[in-house]
Amino acid sequence: MKKNIIGIILISVLVCFLCACTKEESVYLESERDISETTEETMPDTNTEPAFCCVYVCGAVRNPGIYELKEGARIWDALKAAGGFAEDAADTACNLAEYVTDAQKVYVPTIEEAGALLETAESEGLPGEAGKVNLNTATSAQLMEIPGIGRSKADSILAYRSEHGRFEKIEDIMNITGIKEGIFEKIKDSITVD
Q1: 57-106 pLDDT, tens per residue?
Q2: Cα–Cα distance between 29 and 175 in angstroms, integer?
Q3: What's the total number of domains in the chain?
Q4: ∠ at Cα 185 (181, 188), nearest 5°?
Q5: Domain containing 166: what range?
Q6: Where are the alpha helices (DSSP H) in 88-144?
Q7: I need a surface site. Which of 23, 62, 90, 161 has the fewest CB within 10 A?
């Protein structure tokens, strides 16, 4: 009987010991899982791909085409991707430090094209056809002579012209940010694209 009691006590102690060890191991595993989950949640994602944009480079460049550039690239990067300027390029016609945007067209005129535009602008002066300002040849100062066009909008017109080439029709001016139908109706008799 005494042996049975000692055996029961030993078995009880052993069971308690095993339960305590299992519980301790469970707590350890649980805290380890919490740490790994927290670490995964707070760790920055290092697999993030950099953003890209597509730019169409054409005109007087060695290899015209569409190029994929990293976000934050500049016109200079787009021209390098296109092989650089062609021999007859008017290399000062573009703002090489300007940032590129997705779906942008970068047109580099030839020296002849740039000279013709400059010559036309100088010979015509401010008035274009019947006193109208030519959107394709006017300088910033000449554009600011259009009623309602200040420096900011004049600079936007020049930037648009540099990026997209000639204005094909006077309505194209509505592609400029801040110039919509209301302003267009006020200035349409003051502008030309000839």
Answers
A1: 999 999 999 999 998 899 999 999 999 999 999 888 888 888 888 888 88
A2: 63
A3: 2
A4: 115
A5: 125-192
A6: 111-124, 140-143
A7: 23
